[in-house]
Design brief:
The chain is mostly beta strands and 249 residues long. Helix content is 6%, strand content 27%. It has three domains: 6-15 and 25-100, no CATH class; 102-141, no CATH class; 171-249, no CATH class. It is elongated, with a radius of gyration of 32 Å.
Length: 249
């Protein structure tokens, strides 16, 4: 059963009410129950967010009774003949008073964010940049392919540990590809590292799989032939392959 997606709302502006011949006095309006809440929705898509106590909203009162339409949808007759009644309110979320205005509001970008601004999706128009920032975790789940294409550089910086698990992994690059840092692990598939002497860095080539733990070797362990292997070669010389196994054993 679908939730009704309604709220109980306290009108935040009092009504001036005159009783008899007395002067009009401000009176707080009663709680409005089962108020439909507005969420942007069209074309099979919708934007939803949690509604919490003390959130502010704008109440819009329909000209006619909405009970029949709200309960059944479609075109309905009026259940009651009334005009601008408190019973026919709808809540539009987002508008706020000054004390609850959004902090750290960006005037240079479009943002989907939390109020703390430690988790957000941002489109910056000035430099054509998209920023995705997560407070703790960032999860991507798909039943099909994930494709990434860039015309320039692809940089990944991991402060702790990066894990990659795949039945078949392939890397294709027209420029040198580096793996930096001691304790870096590669396993499975056909990924094999080699030490680029001229750049003093590890790179990756395609060879039969051999379990390994990578750590920059000392100059004494650098073998003639390994540093000559270039990215994209499908095999190395017998001498280089034999020494590679020995070095990484």
């Amino acid at each position: 059963m679908r939730p009704k997606q309604t709220a109980t709302v306290q009108p935040a502006i009092t009504e001036n009410v005159r009783q008899g011949q007395d002067e009009a006095k401000p009176m707080q309006l009663p709680l409005l129950t089962d108020v439909p809440v507005f969420f942007p929705r069209a074309g099979g898509y919708c934007l939803t967010f949690p509604v919490k106590p003390d959130d502010e909203c704008l109440l819009v009162f329909s000209d006619m009774c909405i009970d029949g339409w709200w309960q059944s949808g479609g075109v309905q007759d009026q259940v009651e003949t009334r005009r601008h009644d408190l019973s026919d309110a709808q809540a539009l979320l987002g508008i706020t008073s000054v004390p609850k205005a959004v902090k750290n509001y960006s005037i240079k970008s479009v943002m989907l964010r939390n109020e703390d601004k430690d988790s957000y999706f941002e489109i910056v128009d000035d430099d054509k940049t998209i920023n995705i920032v997560g407070a703790e975790k960032f999860n991507v789940t798909t039943k099909d392919d994930i494709n990434e294409t860039t015309q320039k550089n692809w940089n990944v910086n991991v402060k702790e540990k990066a894990n990659h698990t795949s039945a078949d992994t392939s890397l294709d690059s027209k420029a040198p590809m580096g793996i930096k840092g001691s304790g870096t692990e590669l396993g499975g598939g056909n990924l094999r590292p080699y030490w680029q002497k001229e750049k003093s860095a590890w790179s990756v080539m395609f060879l039969p799989p051999v379990p390994m733990a990578i750590a920059p070797p000392s100059p004494a362990l650098i073998c003639m032939g390994i540093h000559k292997v270039k990215m994209g070669m499908m095999a190395a010389t017998d001498a280089a392959e034999a020494t590679n196994k020995k070095v990484l054993k």
